[in-house]
Amino acid sequence: MKAFLALLKIDLKLARRNRAVLFFNYLFPLFFFFVFAQMFGAGQGSAILQVVTMVIVLGILGNGLFGAGMRAVQEREENVLRRYKVTPITPVPLLCASMITGVVLFLPSVLLIVFLAHQFYGMAIPGRLVSLLVFVCLGAAAFRSLGLIIAAVVNSSQESNILIQPIYMAMLFLSGATIPITLMPHWLQNVTQFIPATYLMTGIGGIIQRGESVAANWQAVVALLLTTAVATFIATKLFRWEKEEKLRASAKLWVVVVLLPFLCLGAYQAWSQQDLVKARILARDLRRGQTWLIQNARIFVGNGPVIESGAVLVRGGKIEQVYDGTSPDAKQLHAEAIDAAGKTILPGLIDVHVHLGGPGGFYDDWSKFDPEKANERELEAYLYSGVTAVRSAGDKLDDMLKLRERFNGGEKLGSELFLCGPLFTAEGGHGTEYAKNMSEMARAGFSAQFLRIPKTQEEARKMVDDLAAKGVNAIKGILEPGVPGYSFNRMNLDLLRAVVEEAHAKKLPASIHTGESRDVIDAVALGADSIEHGSFRDEIPDATIAEMKAKGIAYDPTLSVVEGLSDFSKGKTDLLKRSLVQQVTTKELLTGAEHAAASAEMKSLREGLAHYPLSLEEGSRNLLKAWHAGVLLVTGSDAGNFLVLHGPTVQREIELWVAAGIPPAVALQAATANAAKLLRSDQRMGTIEKGKEATLLIVDGNPLQDVHALSSISVVMLKGERVGRNTLFEQK
Fold first, then answer.
1. Does residue 394 sit in helix, strand or coil?
2. Per residue in 123-163, pLDDT tens?
3. CB distance 454 to 467 below 8 Å
4. Residues of CATH 2.30.40.10 domain(s) within the chain?
5. Which of 7, 105, 412, 540 is deepest in the core (most CB within 10 A)?
C-alpha cells in the first residue's frame, strides 16, 4: 500500500506539471462554461442548469479520452513507463493510480463550476451535491478507463489521435453535451442511446435538475462500473512498458468490447425509450424554468379581483410576483419581456367534464381511427385552445392512466389530465332500438366498456377501493336513466350511497350525473361533491339549490352538450365552423361529422335524440337559479359527445352561460378558481397569485366585456413554459 500511495503521489505531481492535463481539467471546462452561459442566456431562468450539466460532461470527456489516453501514450513514448519496469510494480497499480489521479484532479473543477454558476448566475447549490460528486467520480473513472484502453491498443500518439477523435466527436455531438437530444430526429435520438456520454448527460441532468439520487440512475451506474472494470482488466492485459512493443491493428477491436455494456444498455433503451423519455422531461423542465415578465396587461386574477394594468413575473415555473401598475424593467429582473398591452391575462381555463374516448365527431372510414393518437391530439387541442386542465368524466381507465403519465409527467405537452375512471351505473338496456343506437354510437367511437355495474354495496365499495388504488382523481356515478344511445335503469340509491361514502373514505370527490330534478335531489342528499348536468327537463327545487349552497356542492350545467345533441338531431353543423374548432380538429373528423349529420345511416339516432327530453332553456334557468343562490359554479362541456369537439370547449360553454344571463366575470371564475377548487388543486392553480403555477392564458381584448375574446388567443403558458402552438401537433 505504501508503494501504491507513493506512486499516486508521484503521479499527481507529474500531472500537475503536464500542461495538457491542466488544460483539459480546468481551462477546457471553464472556456465552455462561459461560452455556453452566453449562448444559452444562463442568467435567465434555469438555462444555467443545462450549462453546468453540459460543461461537466465535456470535462469528463476531456479528462478521460484526452487526459488519460493521450497522457498514457506520451509517457510510453517518452520512456517514462520504462523506468517503472525495473521496479517491483505491476501494471495494475499504475493504471489505478492514473484513474484516481484523474478523478482527484477533476473534482475541484466540478466544484468550481458549481460555485461560479451559483455566484454569477444564481443557480442554487444542488440539493444532492454528494450524489452529483459520486456520479461524476464514476463517470470520470469509466471514461479514464476508456482512455487507458485506447492508449493500450495504439502504437503511437498519431494513432491515438486518429482513434480518439471519432469516438470523442460522436460523444460530443450525439450525447446532448453540445446539441440537446430532443432537437434531433427521432431515429437519431435512438442512436444516441448507444453513446456512453448520453448517460452522463441524463444522469447529471437528473441529479441537478430534479434532485435525483445515484440510485435513481442505477442503470447508468451499472454500465459505468462494468466499463471501468472491463476496461481496466483489458488495459492491464495489453499493457506495454516500452514504445518498441507493438500490437496488431486488430487489437483496436478491444475498444468495442469495452463499449459492450453501453451497447447492451443502448439496445434496451432504444426498445424501452426510458432514457429518451427522461431526456424529454428534463428538456421540458428547462423550458418551464425560463423567466418571463408579462407587462402592460389587464389581469383577471381568477377569484374576483381585476388589475386593470399590471404585470406578472414568472420564474422557475411559478408566479414570483404580480404587479399592480408599473413593474421593474425586464432586463433588471433577468427576464424575457412579453408585451401584453391591450390584452388580458387569465389563469388557464379548466373543463371539468370531458370524454376523451368520444371524438365528438365521426370518420367516414373508422379503420383509420387510432384511439391512442386521438386521445393525445385531444389533450394537445385543449392546450392549443387555452384549456390547460381537463377532467375525464368517464373513459377507459388504463388508457387514461397511460395518457396522464405521459402528459402530466412532462413527456408530452398538452392539457393537464385529471380522471374519474369508469362510471358507476345500473344494468339495463333492452329492445331493438337500443341495440341499433348502440351500434351507431359504437361507429361514432363510443364504448360501454367504461361502465362499472355493482350488484351489492360491498362490491360497490370494493370497486371504489380498486379505482382509488390506481390513482383516480374522483369517482363518478350515473343516477339518470335513459342516457342517449344507452338505456340504463336508474341506479339503486343504496348502491350509489355506498359508492359516495367509500369515495369520501378514500378522500376522493364524488360526482353524480343527473338528468332531472329528482336525480339532483337524490344526489344532493347522498352528499355528492358535484352535480353533473343538473336538470334539462324540469326546475330544480329552491330547497335543493339552497342545500347545494350549504353543503358546498359544485354545479356543472354542461350547456354545451345539450346544444350539440340538439344541433346534431336537426342535422345542423354550425358548431363545426368555429375558428378554433377548425384549427384543432383534423379534416377527416370534420368531414365525417358533416356527413354523419346528414346521412341516412344515422337517421334513427338523430330521431332518437330529437325526442330525448333535453331543453337548453330549462338548463339555463337552473343555472341562473344556482348562481343567484350562491352555489359554486364550474365549467364542464361533456366534450366527446355529438358536435362537442375537443379543444375550445370552455369558450363555448362560457358563451352559452353569458347568453343565459350569467355575468362574464362569474363565468370566468367558474372556469378558473372554482374549477380548480373542485379538482382539489386550487393550492397550485386556478388563480394568478404569488407562488401558484404559471399556467396562464393571454387573449386579445377584454373577455369581461366580450367573452368571445377568449377565442382570440395570444399566448398559452403551462407551468412556466410558453407553448409553441404552431408546432404543438407535430410532437413525436
1. coil
2. 989 999 999 999 999 998 888 888 777 777 777 777 777 77
3. no
4. 289-347+687-732
5. 540
CA angle 201, 205, 206 (to 5 degrees): 120
And the C-alpha cell for 542? Answer: 329552491
| Alpha carbon separation from 457 to 129, 384, 454, 499, 608 (Å, rounded) | 52, 43, 7, 8, 34
Q: Residue 188 in 3-state DSSP?
A: helix
CA-nearest of 654, 668, 713, 677 to 302 is: 668
Q: Are 287 and 721 in contact (CB under 8 A)?
A: yes
Q: Exposed, middle or buried: residue 407 (CB in 10 Å: 0-12, 13-18, 19+)?
A: buried
Output the CATH code of domain 289-347+687-732.
2.30.40.10
Residues forming a β-bridge with 717: 696, 722
Q: What is the pLDDT of residues 97-117, one digit of tens each?
A: 777 877 888 888 899 999 999
Question: What rounded mean pLDDT belongs to the chain?
Answer: 86
Q: How far apart are CA 55 and CA 177, in angstroms?
A: 8
Asked if pLDDT for residue 419 goes beyond 70, the answer is: yes
Q: How many CA atoms lie within 13 A of 655 on its CB side?
A: 13
Cα distances (angstroms) measured from residue 323 to each of 295, 308, 346, 643: 9, 11, 14, 41
CATH homologous superfamily of 349-685 equals Metal-dependent hydrolases (3.20.20.140)
d(CA 195, CA 171): 6
In this structure, are residues 641 and 651 in contact, taking their beta carbons and an 8 Å threshold?
A: no
How large is the greatest C-alpha to C-alpha distance in the chain, in angstroms? 103
pLDDT value of residue 438: 44
In the Cβ-directed half-sphere of 478, how many Cα atoms lie within 13 Å? 25
**Where, residue-wise, is CATH 3.20.20.140 in the chain?**
349-685
Please answer whether residues 12 and 101 qualify as being in contact, where contact means their C-beta atoms are separated by less than 8 angstroms. yes
Distance CA 525, CA 497 (A): 9
Q: Please state the pTM of the whole predicted model.
A: 0.88
